[in-house]
Design goal:
- With 354 residues, this protein is α/β, with parallel strands linked by helices.
- It has 2 domains: 3-143 and 316-335, Nucleotidyltransferase, domain 5 (2-Layer Sandwich); 152-312, ATPase, nucleotide binding domain (Nucleotidyltransferase, domain 5), CATH 3.30.420.40.
- 39% of the residues lie in helices and 17% in strands.
- It has 10 helices and 10 strands.
- The chain has helices at 41-45, 52-73, 93-110, 119-125, 184-194, 201-209, 233-248, 255-280, 296-305, 323-335; strands at residues 10-15, 20-27, 31-39, 83-89, 114-118, 152-157, 162-167, 174-178, 285-289, 310-311.
- The strands form 2 sheets. Strands 3-2-1-4-5 form a 5-stranded mixed beta sheet, with helices on both faces.
- The longest helix has 26 residues, at 255-280.
- The chain binds 5'-O-[(R)-(carboxyoxy)(hydroxy)phosphoryl]adenosine and zinc ion.
- Zinc ion binds at residues 119, 123, 158, 290-291, 320.
Amino acid sequence: MNATTFPPARILGIETSCDETAASIVENGRVILTSIVASQVDLHAQFGGVFPEVASRQHIRTIYPIVETSFKEAHMHLGEVDAIAVTRGPGLPGSLVIGMNTAKGLSLGSGLPIIGVNHLEAHIYSAWLHWPPLANGSSGGVEFKPEPQFPLIVLIVSGGHTELVLMKDHLTYERLGATLDDAAGEAFDKVARLIGLEYPGGPAIQKAADGGNPKAFAFPRAWLEDSWNFSFSGLKTAVLREVRRLQSVRRELPVADLAASFQAAVVDVLVGKTVRAAQALGAAEILVAGGVSANSALRAAIHAQAPCPVHIPPLALCTDNAAMVAAAGYYRFAKGQRDGLDMDVLPNWPLSEV
Ligand code: KG4
Ligand code: ZN
């Protein structure tokens, strides 16, 4: 399947699976007409993580103004889109419901079809999007980066998931492996807290690591040689032990060195296994997506070590947004998917079951 064979369509995307409230309008799965993301990070920072009840109530306050602003920004009205794509799962149940009910309300009022999208699939399709958004959708004279080519090895690294997937065509996913315990982003968030950095931990560790020595501490790498799975709990425990040891001898924590050494251990395993999977399975290209794909050390290492072209979404599209939901929704729309008003959210929806 090639994008050029798909019929043109404009999709409104809605995303409320965790702590970002987002809406976007995307043309033909690649051209962003508008993408608005309202982050709740400041709201949750006081709790050191996402507080589900607070998240869903904030989505209620924010989602409608954001949808309205999206149409204003794109100088469009609802009648000018072809379908509404909404994140159905995985995610926080109470948060998913807000986006889902918004999509249903808009569908009921306009007659537009709704399409439930898997959040991990959406992260993958962020790599098809052109950045920055194009005013009035005018793509004349704009050079698009090449589309990812199949078979693709996909590494999804987010706050809730770490998965290695083989994609032989659009919308088909063969799960090779996943984390046995913590997700990569979760490990960043937990270790950040251990060494006294603020939430969200990923960006905080990256910043601290810039001034540190990645070889200062020899933290363990769980290679799990006989599988494509990952494990980060041993690494997290090793950092905890080191922090306790340093505290017991009343030494000030060398935060930059701890951050750099932890980050190096995560990146080594993520990149090492992804590269090996690409070689073993004869992948044409590699795609890395999800919040942790914003990490500069990970981006540099995968580009340096990959035996084939690598696609990583632009930074603005790595963390949660609705453009990626609209992009995935476009391919589902083209395939004929239409969901009913009785569609429920799926908080634990695996990518292999979409
Ligand atoms: O994909 P995402 O926005 O939300 C989920 O679907 O989970 O990912 C959020 C995760 C958080 O754990 C955050 O700490 C991590 O992505 N993250 C990073 C970076 N930016 C965000 N991890 C490492 N380095 C970064 N620069
Ligand atoms: Zn996400």
